[in-house]
Amino acid sequence: MEKKYAVLIYPDFSLQEITCLTSALSVWFGEKIDIIASENKPYASEEGFQVVPGKTVDQADPAEYACVILPGTVNPLPALFDERLTAFLRRGQGTDTLFAAISSAPALLCKAGLLEGRDFTAGFFTQLAETFPFIDEAHFVHRPVVEDGNTVTAIGMFFREFAQTVLNRLGYDVGEHFMDTSGPAYIQEELTFRWSEEDYQEFLEELKEYTGKD
């Protein structure tokens, strides 16, 4: 059965926190990602990009997806008080869907009951947990990335580790140093990139569409 993936968006969502994950899924592994929101309208990311969802939460079923990805947001209240988002996530209870939430987004999973009795981490301020009773402080652990059941949660600054953990959970081999540039200095040969002959010929064929030359 073909795996399907989704990103849930809401006002001021963070692209930066999830693009390591989404680019690997789409560019490295050729996966299609559905963008889902409460309404069929453009949503501005916290970086200022306008993103139009392909589906609304009323048109989507979380059980259809191998993974639903929740980016963080610098402004969590609009999402937290959007009952359409909460209802969508609640429909994922008892499914095999992996819910991957980073930064402030674990609060959404808490409100939907998906983190009940499960350890999680998050990048929101601790007063948020003190304010909302649906956030279980006893299970709020302060680590970069936490896996528990069918949930992966992370602090926003650990977006690379978050992506690596989610990809591993989904069965993708990304090696031990996924997007990690902290190793030894690279030599010139390692930073010189060449297509294979097959890929280069494919590029030349595509180029003809732009130049009109055979």
Question: Which overall shape is indicated by the principal axes computed on the Cα atoms?
Answer: globular
- Looking at the structure, the CATH topology is Rossmann fold
Q: List the total number of helices.
A: 7
Straight-line distance between termini: 41 Å
**Count of domain modules:** 1
* Helix content bin: 25-40%
Q: Encode the helix/strand succession as letters.
A: EHEEEEEHHEHHEEHH
Q: Structural class of the helices, strands and pairings?
A: alpha/beta
Rounded radius of gyration (Å): 19 Å
Number of E-state strands? 9
CATH class: Alpha Beta
Give the biggest sheet. Answer: 7 strands, mixed
Q: Mean of the pLDDT scores?
A: 92
Query: Can you tell me the CATH superfamily?
Result: Class I glutamine amidotransferase (GATase) domain
Flag low-confidence runs: none
Strand content is 5-15%
Features:
9 strands; 15% strand; seven-stranded mixed β-sheet; Rossmann fold; alpha/beta
Explain this structure.
Helix content is 28%, strand content 15%. The protein is an alpha/beta fold and 214 residues long. The chain starts with a strand and ends with a helix. Helix 1 (19-28) packs across helix 6. The protein is globular. The strands form two sheets. A seven-stranded mixed β-sheet has the order 5-2-1-6-7-9-8. A two-stranded antiparallel sheet has the order 3-4. The protein is built from seven helices and nine strands. It has one domain (5-177): 3-Layer(aba) Sandwich (Rossmann fold), CATH 3.40.50.880. The mean pLDDT is 92.
